[in-house]
Amino acid sequence: MSKVWFVTGSSRGLGRRFVEAALSRGDRVAATARDTGGLDDLVAAHGDAVLPLRMDVTDRTAVFESVQRAARHFGRLDVIVNNAGYAQVGAVEELTERELRDQMETNLFGAVWVVQAALPHLREQRSGHIVQLSSAAGLIAMPLGGAYHASKWALEGLNEALAGEAAAFGVKVTIVEPGGFATRDGNNPDPLANGHMADTNPAYDGLRRRLGEVAGKQPAGDPAAAARALLKVVDSENPPLRILFGQGFYPMVQQAYADRLQTWADWQDLSAEAHGDPAPAGR
User: Considering the entire predicted model, what is its pTM?
Assistant: First the structure.
């Protein structure tokens, strides 16, 4: 059976590729973007199979209206892809309140509004799949990315909780964690160059320079390949809760988790002491 998709941030990048992949195999798509002009060619090629919707995910009312319109237009919703987002770049000390709040409004709250609007339809159907685009940045953190990491780490916890809540209704949840993909001119995007930049404090210029020398230098993933992979995820009977897209960050994630486990083990005596328990014998 063909599926009905609802995809945010669909006018470019990975979102655009997801829409193209779904349409190419006969699925139907409600494609949302702040500017739907970039979807005109898809409408010309696929007709009623694609429903372009002008929508900003930070506008909760608009999100609910768009989801309702898509459900009425296609008669159902099967795959919800929360893809819209951006990276705010800057040291924690450099971030303004507005920059941090805007990052959360788009990356976190926007995703929440889409889930809250779509989940009642999926619950009623007793089926569906919510796909959250997180990032390798939702698993590890690096300097100058505090706001972006905060938004993606929040999404990780939110969607893990959501998976437990939605499972009883036959609704699946998958968190996709891409590394770097060639979404701009065939290159691996450099977040230090392509993100929203905070006003810089000279105290961090040396750090910024060192990170700039290595950022975006890993081999770029192919967005079309990522889209094909997503089709396999949503077609799976038992999709993963989490999946990395691309290989560049896998060794870094492995090391980060190994380091965390080792640190917790090294400090177990003090952990027990903090609880009021005596240290384990022999240690």
Answer: 0.92
Active-site residue, from 11, 152, 172, 204: 152
**229 and 139 housed in the same domain:** yes
Confidence category of residue 186, pLDDT binned at 50, 70, 90:
very low
- Residues 136 and 81 sit within 8 Å (Cβ to Cβ): no
Exactly one of 10, 134, 135, 151 is catalytic; name it: 134
End-to-end CA, the chain: 60
Distance CA 107, CA 154 (A): 9
219 and 278 in a common domain? no
Q: Is 204 a catalytic residue?
A: no
Q: Which residue has the higher pLDDT, 247 or 217?
A: 247
**3-state secondary structure (DSSP) of residue 64:** helix
Say how many C-beta atoms besides its own lie within 10 A of residue 142's C-beta: 14
Instruction: Please indicate whether residue 236 is annotated as part of the active site.
Output: no
Active-site option among 3, 66, 148, 204:
148
- Please report which helix (H) or strand (E) contains residue 258, including its range: helix 250-266
Q: Could you tell me the CATH number of the domain that includes residue 197? A: 3.40.50.720
**In sequence order, what are the residues at sequence separation of 6 or more whose Cβ sits closer than 8 angstroms to the Cβ of residue 238?**
none
Q: The domain containing residue 271 runs over which residues? A: 251-283
